């Protein structure tokens, strides 16, 4: 049953779309797509297909392609529509706008012009992968796509090596093996990781293991489909001063066990190591 058309207030609506399964669209996204005066999409064919699946007719409304290659030419038209008091819905090919998808330039222009802007949240491959990887999610860094060349890729990975957070990357299925090989050389083969592929689709797959194990497994294999790579944070020795400061603060309000667990999670350190340090601090006068 098609959504009921409800009038929209003027403004730009950033609409998140499914990353695979068409039923992951939100009810609010369907309402916006059904009622917007103007539609813009990274891929107009993908948006038309999604609308057809959910029974939303275009009904003569403008449907404009807006992507990295034509953005400078199309952006003035969209801004003009907004200035004239119309509602404009923008949808990426899949996922959340601006998350490794076009739209940043449009959003900046809308903000600078003082025009209304809102988001219609929904699926994102990075969030879906984080929930499935089995790695810490209390703190993570989304690094997008790494450079294509090995030298530049290793340099980028080296800059992230000490970041105390789970690392999230999008990667081409053709380059996953090469990327993992460079990650082993740069980050070490023992770091835990997960390769998440074709999320929400029929052939969804998550492979978990150390970087070394996954690199050997995928050295010759060629994957298909969208890929997200999740890599655990560095779990080496933390700076002794940083660890002691964090533990002393936590021990003011927590037991030794609770403080060790909280600090270990926050600093990305083995719980046993932090617990032993907390015990020593607890023994000091």
Structure, described:
The structure is a single chain. By secondary structure, the chain is of the alpha/beta class. It folds into three domains: 113 residues, Cobalt-precorrin-4 Transmethylase, domain 1 (3-Layer(aba) Sandwich), CATH 3.40.1010.10; 106 residues, Methyltransferase, Cobalt-precorrin-4 Transmethylase, Domain 2; 44 residues. The protein is 41% helix and 18% strand. It is built from eleven helices and ten strands. The strands form two sheets. Strands 3-2-4-1-5 form a five-stranded parallel β-sheet, sandwiched between helices. α6 packs across α7. The longest helix is centred in the N-terminal third of the chain and has 13 residues. The N and C termini lie far apart (70 Å). The mean pLDDT is 92.
- CATH fold-level name of the largest domain: Cobalt-precorrin-4 Transmethylase, domain 1
**Succession of helices and strands:** EHEHEHEHEHEHEHEEHEHHH
Strand order of the largest sheet: 3-2-4-1-5
Fraction in helix:
40-55%
CATH class of the largest domain: Alpha Beta
Q: What's the SSE blueprint?
A:
Elements: E1 11-15, H1 27-35, E2 38-41, H2 44-53, E3 63-65, H3 71-83, E4 87-91, H4 104-112, E5 117-120, H5 125-133, E6 140-145, H6 150-160, E7 166-171, H7 176-187, E8 192-197, E9 205-210, H8 211-217, E10 227-231, H9 240-251, H10 256-267, H11 271-283
Parallel strand pairs: 1-4, 1-5, 2-3, 2-4, 6-7
Antiparallel strand pairs: 7-10, 8-9, 8-10
Helix pairs in contact: 6-7, 7-8, 9-10, 9-11, 10-11
Protein name: Ribosomal RNA small subunit methyltransferase I
GO molecular function, one term: rRNA (cytosine-2'-O-)-methyltransferase activity
Family: Belongs to the methyltransferase superfamily. RsmI family.
